[in-house]
UniProtKB/TrEMBL annotation:
<feature type="active site" description="Proton donor/acceptor">
    <location>
        <position position="145"/>
    </location>
</feature>
<feature type="active site" description="Schiff-base intermediate with substrate">
    <location>
        <position position="175"/>
    </location>
</feature>
<feature type="binding site">
    <location>
        <position position="216"/>
    </location>
    <ligand>
        <name>pyruvate</name>
    </ligand>
</feature>
<keyword id="KW-0456">Lyase</keyword>
<protein>
    <submittedName>
        <fullName>Dihydrodipicolinate synthetase</fullName>
    </submittedName>
</protein>
<comment type="similarity">
    <text>Belongs to the DapA family.</text>
</comment>
<dbReference type="InterPro" id="IPR002220">
    <property type="entry name" value="DapA-like"/>
</dbReference>
<dbReference type="InterPro" id="IPR013785">
    <property type="entry name" value="Aldolase_TIM"/>
</dbReference>
<dbReference type="Pfam" id="PF00701">
    <property type="entry name" value="DHDPS"/>
</dbReference>
<dbReference type="GO" id="GO:0008840">
    <property type="term" value="F:4-hydroxy-tetrahydrodipicolinate synthase activity"/>
</dbReference>
Length: 315
């Protein structure tokens, strides 16, 4: 089935599920968050705010509303924003998605409701349909979020086809975080025009020739420019060089607890220990883990340009 490729996703892009800094009392540190968002955009990345690696499901509804407003008020173009708006509670999903739509964001990245397991495609179709109908805007663009190892609620190809058929100009893409290349490949082949985003830049070498829309990757938080360079490569040789660089960094980081690892790397290169804070039930990396990871990255000659300037941001 041929889907409608929205112009916002016509050119391959990288989006970072932006990690969220916290103050000592575990409130959101909005100034640091905004500064980091601006750094990411300057490095060529879009912003998938409130993704898994943003600790989104540890953030309250009002916190997410306020933080999106803070980013836009700071001058970040909403066209760079793809906030996560899925929720277990339908009213919360509607409120978050409406807010993203009214703010002019490029789209809303929507988890399925993830508390009840074994739900049917009929139930999931009703969930997404109810959100779309409640908002009732031609400007709304929804991207599905398939991460069954966390949600326990897979987004099937049958459900994708039903949603594309019912809402061809609204349901425009998906992030596939399953880690199952066979599933990603099947979606790329089955739904041409549908914006399929693998969750790992290490898959782009295989995914881009099949029409992938880019990637929405945890490690875009730390290597946005390298991934953007891969997406913008104009020759096979150039692409191969960038593929090797981004894949080796990705493999080193994903071998660790991802969220604490990303935060520790940012803390190191920003020279700002406050970035290591996570909200419970997560815990920071221990010294052995963090030391080994930084040694690996040093061996790869890894760096994050201009990150030291973020350390001047007041908490």
């Amino acid at each position: 089935m041929v889907a409608h490729r929205h112009p916002a996703f016509a050119t391959p892009r990288v989006f970072a599920p932006v990690i969220t800094p916290f103050t000592k009392d575990l409130r959101i540190d909005a100034p640091r968050f905004v500064a980091f968002c601006r750094w990411l955009v300057g490095q060529g990345a879009g912003l998938a705010l409130f993704g898994t690696n943003s600790e989104a499901n540890s953030l309250g509804l009002t916190e997410r509303h306020a933080l999106l407003d803070d980013v836009i008020k700071a001058g970040v173009d909403p066209a760079h924003l793809l906030p996560g708006t899925g929720s277990c509670a339908l009213p919360d999903a509607i409120a978050l998605t409406r807010h993203a739509c009214e703010a002019g964001c490029a789209g809303a990245l929507m988890l399925p409701p993830f508390f009840y397991k074994g739900v049917s495609d009929d139930g999931l179709f009703a969930y997404y349909s109810d959100v779309i109908q409640a908002i009732g805007s031609d400007q709304l663009r929804v991207l599905l979020y398939h991460i069954p190892q966390f949600t326990g609620v897979p987004i099937t190809h049958t459900l994708i086809e039903r949603l594309i058929t019912a809402y061809p100009r609204t349901v425009v893409g998906i992030k596939d975080s399953s880690g199952d290349w066979a599933n990603t490949e099947a979606m790329l082949r089955k739904f041409p025009g549908f914006a399929v985003f693998p969750a790992s830049e290490a898959l782009l070498g295989k995914a881009l020739p099949l029409g992938a829309a880019g990637c929405i990757s945890a490690t875009a938080n730390i290597q946005p420019q390298a991934i953007a360079s891969l997406l913008n490569a104009t020759t096979l040789e150039e692409r191969a060089v960038w593929e090797g660089k981004v894949a080796t960094v990705r493999l080193a980081v994903q071998a660790q607890p991802m969220i604490p690892a990303l935060k520790h790397i940012v803390a190191h290169f920003a020279n700002d220990e406050s970035w290591t804070r996570v909200r419970p039930p997560l815990t920071p990396m221990n010294p052995a883990q963090s030391g080994a990871l930084l040694q690996q990255l040093q061996a790869l000659d890894f760096s994050m340009p201009a990150m030291a300037t973020l350390a001047t941001v007041a908490a």
